[in-house]
Amino acid sequence: MERKMKDSGIPWFGEIPEHWKISRVKHFSNIFSGEQLPQEYFTEDKLYPIYGGGDVMGYSKIHNVPKNSLILGRVGGDGQVRHIKSDFWATDNSLIIETSLNKTYLCGVLNSTNLLRLNTSTSQPLLTASKIKNVPIPVPPVAEQELIAAYLDEKCGEIDELIEVEQQMISDLESYRQAIITEAVTHGLNPNSVMIDSDCDWFDSHPSNWHTEKIRNLFAKRSEKNNPIKTKERLSLSIDKGITLYADKTTNLDRFKDDFTQYQLAHPNDIVLNSMNMIVGAVGKSAYYGCVSPVYYVIYSKDANVNMDYYGYLLNIQIIRDVYHKLGQGIYAIERGDGRVNTCRLKVDYYEFSQIKVPVPPIEEQDAIVSFLKERERKIDELIKVKHEKIETLKQYRQSLIFEAVTGKTRIIENA
What we know:
Elements: E1 5-7, E2 15-17, E3 21-24, E4 29-33, E5 42-43, E6 48-51, E7 56-60, E8 69-73, E9 81-84, E10 89-90, E11 94-99, H1 103-110, H2 129-133, E12 136-139, H3 142-187, E13 195-197, E14 205-207, E15 211-214, H4 215-218, E16 219-221, E17 235-238, E18 242-245, E19 264-266, E20 271-274, E21 283-285, E22 290-292, E23 296-301, H5 308-314, H6 318-327, E24 328-337, E25 340-348, H7 350-354, E26 357-360, H8 363-406
Parallel strand pairs: 6-10
Antiparallel strand pairs: 1-2, 3-12, 4-11, 5-7, 6-7, 8-9, 8-11, 13-14, 15-26, 16-23, 17-18, 19-22, 20-21, 20-23, 24-25
């Protein structure tokens, strides 16, 4: 028997089953903001996850929201409602949704609504409880909500498992990338090379035709201030992308100040290191001329027999990051405004950094290592791109499946 449908009157939902009702979130739900976590409750132990505008941003010793709750980013979020199955801490950048509807159902229907269209800010996504409360939604009978929720738990669980497999493959490829880079920049490309003990305390050996030098003997620190203003091209340094043009960024667009004279210059072929984040990989070789944060270190080669790409790789491998971590001085709380703390970092003093000994292969070997690594990275990036495309396809299918279910277009039971 064909199910009778009707126009919901909501453009983004289209038709719904004839016996379903249309109501607003406020008739079934209470929505309120989270709260700022006191600094003393942050922890490195994975106890209670902290949610703000999006995914997990750290861990807390305490929680302020019970398990099986819905949360939505209030400021700077992606517009997605999350159904959290464990106890957690919600910051004041989030909205918690208490509801009498089935939570899996409400989560699905809200995620089919494109909540970002309710954004009240032009600078970054800002959602309010009043806006969410007035969102119109289809409301099936309780029994159907339960059946839809069970269906979604099963089907979405299967899709999530497939996504997790692809994500693990990406993680494995990234680990493989790091292993290849580390081996190449510390031991070279010739497996038959005669190895000798390294006089560096952070790796064991290197080919006998290599030597070691302190960083200060290979590089000079660039200290060119952008005052008077020489360029308005702002450069961004990130852990995953290295040095990019700030104009190409799509997130964290509030980091730069308008006063360009506060920044320092970086030239093409310079290596840039974030003094407070190099311990986690904020290191990159610049292809651009522009200005960067004054907390960054900018170094350039003092020797023609130095391939900056080789040292761009070397200065960002995990085993040298461990050296940075040991050199870290003090804990730096990074304020994000309104009393919020983004993260804590250890700053590496430049003098201490410059004393680190690094391997120095002959320039011909440096060039060969760079060519080898760029080709290997190209192939790894191609594989990772395919994995990301599969994940995106699975996510789109998941969202389509949810939409069809929460609007009644997929018939979960007979004679509904």
